[in-house]
Batch of 3 targets.
Target 1
Amino acid sequence: MAANYDKLKVEVIDSGLCTGCGTCTGVCAAKAIEMDYTGDEILPHLVLDCVSCGLCVEYCPGKDIPLRDLDKKFLGRERNFNDEHLGIYLNSYRGWSKDPYIRQNTSSGGIVTSLAKYALDSKRVDAVIMSALKDDEPWKGVPFIATTSEDVDKAARSAPVMVPVNDLVVEALLKRKYKRIGVVGLPCHIHGLRKLQAAGKPKRLAEGISFMIGLYCASTYYWEGVRHLIKEFTEIDDLSKIVKVDYRGGKYPGGMYVLTSDNRIHYIAGKHDYTWHFLGAATYKRDRCLMCVDFSAELADISCGDIFQKVTDNPKIVSVLTRTDTGQELFRGAKEAGFIDFEHHPAELITASGMGWEAKRHAGMYRLLRRGKQGWPVPDYQYDLEVKMLARKLSFPS
Ligand SMILES: Cc1cc2nc3c(=O)[nH]c(=O)nc-3n(C[C@H](O)[C@H](O)[C@H](O)COP(=O)(O)OP(=O)(O)OC[C@H]3O[C@@H](n4cnc5c(N)ncnc54)[C@H](O)[C@@H]3O)c2cc1C
Ligand code: SF4
Ligand code: SF4
């Protein structure tokens, strides 16, 4: 009987609510579900008989995200009026790697890279699940298990495509038998893992995840958008000639560069160019991302994002929200060990940084309400939906 997988397929995958997070494939001890990378987009599919353990349906964050319960369980209380923009957090900082090379060669200033390195070096964890670009199709992302500081370097810089990070949870904790792991993921990855931890089973999985670093997320894009950008702005006729892609190369905030096998570097678009926003961010947004209302990884131990405003002379600085004691200790520990430095950052600047907050807390909220009124499939975030406009005086740095 394939009852549980059937439910996941009907209610989430075939209803357009799958985020691609990989929680279902990552918790399936029978390995009956796998992520399929062969189609246009990654999606879970059944490869063996479903043993009906029910874990995939229970922990899937595609349709049900019990934010209220998870806030209480992991952040100590329900959110109130003051938490409505960024969720519940302890402190707001801006931080940067103290290693100038890491600071320069990471997405926004290397906090995530440095925290992962610190956690491994200090033996707080045995491994960290992270994301890197694929070797054979380098415009796509894959999750991998970092166990050394050198491994962590492979994950530096963000890819705006969906990576099924949670797919590797069983691999790390049961197969490879690591005792404690960290995870770096987007808000939807964190939702799935918190559901697993809240249920407390399988125990080894629930207890083995020591910390989660969440990334602020406006959305991920369909690979088709990346293909389009390459086609329109380069003369590359065959994607197999691409040996490397860098989504945030060059001067901050970075742009998309492609290296071909003839050693030519092709520049496609700057992150804040109209081209990127029109053909990448806006047009090819994944459907499920349009219905997501968590911008700042509200359930992570520590959340990190860009600061698209000029607040210091060096623009490579990361906005950081610590949310749990675990996150606070990791952050302070990394500073004391000389990996990072940080200072206070006014949290109200975060909502006015880039288009992420707007995409989630205003447009996403509104879309959920509209779809709900029509009776179309929508994810349930448990809190009442309220559409509130925030005047942000948004401007991008030149
Ligand atoms: C899809 C996506 C959307 C984002 N949207 C926003 C936004 O709207 N606003 C904002 O302020 N910040 C956003 N960020 C976060 C931002 O790009 C940086 O990741 C963050 O500022 C941390 O910078 P850093 O220099 O510390 O990261 P780095 O030290 O460069 O580390 C980057 C980390 O990101 C992880 N990673 C890369 N790509 C992915 C992926 N696709 N899925 C999961 N993990 C990944 C890697 O494992 C790596 O550990 C987004 C990131 C991603 C991946
Ligand atoms: S767990 Fe994640 S990948 Fe699996 S069906 Fe749900 S949203 Fe999709
Ligand atoms: S927008 Fe939401 S669903 Fe989409 S990748 Fe980001 S966190 Fe996941």
Note: The chain has a mean pLDDT of 94.
Target 2
Amino acid sequence: MPVWTTLLVGKSIARLSRLSGRGGGQALPGLVAEQLDPKLLRKISQKFPQGIVLVTGTNGKTTTAKLLASMLEKKGWRVLTNSTGSNLKRGIVSAVIDGASISGNLPFDAAVFEVDEATLRLVAGLLQPKYIVVLNLFRDQLDRYGELDTTAALIGEGIGQTESTLCLNADDPLVASLVKYAAKPEQTMYFGVGQSVDHRPSLITATDSDRCPICHELLQFPRVWFGHIGHYKCHNCGYKRPKPGVEITSISEMTTQSSRLEMRLMGAKLTVNFQLPGIYNVYNAAAASAVATLWGLIC
Ligand SMILES: [Zn+2]
């Protein structure tokens, strides 16, 4: 079935379901479109001239995807996101249907989709994203999938189906270790918060990821920003925080509404204001900036 036919059928169902007052037409069009054409996502994967980015991890997916989309839009790109729907497979299909024009075209330069950690392996192979971003892996919200290692392996399975360049949090030991699944590990872009940032460090939380992902010995953490996010090293096997290509070198201002950050991006220095408070969002800003840097839009 041609892509435009599936998209138009999906759009009609969305309209009908809106008219009949059955919710916002989010889930049903995606489900029907998937039934009509299970290869829909594979077929649309080539329709974005600049490519697709998938953003996953326990916390910060929505914020990071929004930040990145707005950075791309400021450069004049038209960007499709799944910000109003779910981050499961049907939510991405629904976003594609919603974004399609009445003639079944997708008038976008790029797509930025946030993806649930266990869903990545169901969509990555089909979408063949240019970049995959992994933000962090926390245990507290992961009861639905079991152990952190299991979730990391699920994400790894998704990465393994692609040729994507990875964008990984250098300061999360388990996330940084996902490089082993990359088709082109040498192209991986890490992001993190640097040594000189003046921020009150916290103690590592016992329930978090404090074991070496390679040899399972306890990691040493000279610096911790929150949870298990910080600078680490394994004294048993030598595994350590990789050097980030995009690093926050200073947080010169942090109010309840915004942050002023100094960043080093592949050697270039930049000062940026983000309308988001808190150290969590510093990482989201670093992740979005890392992808924009990979795309050649910042420096
Ligand atoms: Zn180790």
Note: The mean pLDDT is 89.
Target 3
Amino acid sequence: MDVLDLERRAADRLPPHVYDYFRAGAGPDSVERSVDAWARFLHRPRVLRGAGGTDTATAVLGTPVASPVLVAPMAQQVAADPLGERATGRATAGFGSLLGVSTNTAVPFDDVSATGAPWWFQVYLFRDRAIPEQLVDRAVAAGARALILTVDITGLHHPSPEATYSVDPMEWPLSPEAERLTNLDPDVRERARGEGGWFDRSLGLDAIGWLRERSGLPIVVKGVVRGDDARRVVDAGADAVLVSTHGARAFATSVPSAYALREVAEAVGDEVEVYVDSGLRSGIDVATAIALGARAAFVGRPVMWGLATGGERGVRAVLDALHGELVTAMDLLGAPALADLTPDLVVPA
Ligand SMILES: Cc1cc2nc3c(=O)[nH]c(=O)nc-3n(C[C@H](O)[C@H](O)[C@H](O)COP(=O)(O)O)c2cc1C
């Protein structure tokens, strides 16, 4: 799959400020760096191992998935297609995988569940806890199977002076359909307009236990790029760690996920599941990620470009293409099952 071509087609279709919001990184080269880092690994294929067939089935926090290619939580998908996560979810369900749903979705949780895809709710802890409390309670009631606590940004990021979008969709919605925090009651949503809607910058490890207690769901901590932090969050009770740079949207010169993954995987061993996202653009990247210690990989922008160019079918085509490339890579690497994708298959370029 040519993701760059898909992105060009999405850029042709989307209003410029929407495309700009989707593609933006924290700095001018951040996204490119996060993508290029995956190509900095080469492979040592095994041959003549006598294994036929390829099995990509796995489970993430107990949910079976046909492929380790998962869909990352992304805000404001209705600006790519008016159906938003209704389309992304249906494609994900048909593909046999799992969907992350952003705090900042404009789609009601029940509509997400109706797609049939298993989903995890992504949480930001705002200063006014009534906001995440109501969102979490409703996500649980609607059938979310885990929570993804995003910890790598401490505020809405500041777009570059040339940016053609506002980071605050409350002030300037990306599209007529794009409404922020749709799953809140209007009075609670109103509280999000003021300081209460700012990120809680004093967040510490106790947030993990608090969320677990509130929801009764497993907690995935998203945005870890260091082995010592991975250990701390696991010791604090996290059920899984997602190595992520927020698609290079958080800190302009953060180490790319591709370089951080091995350190995190080694720090937590087999204690919890480790996932990765940011910059993956092919099934070979997914194979590399799993060899470096990820149980599964989330994909962000390629899915958004699929949604913008072809709705549900566009998303499905992206997932199918990534999966097909993964199967071919496993075949050529002599890795018939995901467990056969081991670190010895990968060397730095
Ligand atoms: C347009 C857009 C919106 C996003 N919104 C959120 C969000 O609301 N919450 C979150 O935790 N991550 C968000 N992310 C980050 C993704 O979950 C994921 O980490 C990232 O997209 C993966 O990198 P990739 O786009 O290079 O695949 C967003 C990413 C994009 C591109």
Note: The radius of gyration is 19 Å.
